[in-house]
Design brief:
The chain has five helices and two strands, in the order βααβααα. The chain has two domains: 1-73; 75-154, no CATH class. Helix 3 (75-98) runs antiparallel to helix 4 and helix 4 packs antiparallel against helix 5 (120-141). The protein starts with a strand and ends in a 13-residue tail after the last helix. It has helices at 6-31, 40-66, 75-98, 100-115, 120-141; strands at residues 2-5, 70-73. Helices cover 75% and strands 5% of the residues. The chain has a two-stranded antiparallel sheet with strand order 1-2.
Length: 154
């Protein structure tokens, strides 16, 4: 167990919320340059992500004033965070080789299992349904083709 001041943990969470919010705001700004049906979903999803991150940051600011004492961080918790970071980096590296949808399927499965909240069959089913849902959004709703994918073709 690593003993850390709670105020520092909340400040780190605030920094993460602001970073995530900035990332979503950047994605929304980039999406504004798209035209046609493919423009709506990225901008809407990114804007919702930015607003959610701002709410998260606001909640952190409220907690920051009231927080006192110390809190322990468990080693298994740190290992889970490291696995999630590695999975996110692996996801980015796998997209060119496996394709967006297959890499998304692998990332969702690994990240769900790393969190340790669901049995393998539930994590696999949820990951598969989300990957198929992503494919349907791009192919049916947006009528958009992404580069060839290992599992889903093009």
């Amino acid at each position: 167990m690593i003993d850390t001041p709670r105020r520092r943990l909340v400040a780190a969470e605030l920094a993460a919320a602001l970073l995530v919010g900035a990332g979503f705001a950047g994605l929304a700004w980039t999406g504004l340059g798209y035209r046609g049906a493919a423009a709506y979903l990225p901008v809407a999803a990114s804007a919702m992500g930015a607003v959610s991150a701002l709410v998260w940051a606001w909640q952190c600011l409220r907690r920051l004033r009231a927080v006192t004492g110390r809190q322990g961080i468990s080693r298994p918790g740190l290992i889970r965070v490291a696995i999630l970071i590695a999975a996110a980096l692996g996801y980015l590296l796998l997209i060119p080789g496996l394709g967006f949808f297959t890499a998304s399927l692998v990332f969702m499965l690994v990240s769900t299992l790393a969190m340790g909240q669901r049995p393998l069959w539930q994590a696999g089913a949820a990951s598969a349904l989300l990957a198929v849902g992503l494919w349907l959004v791009f192919r049916v709703v947006l009528d958009s083709y992404l580069p060839t994918d290992l599992i889903f073709g093009n």
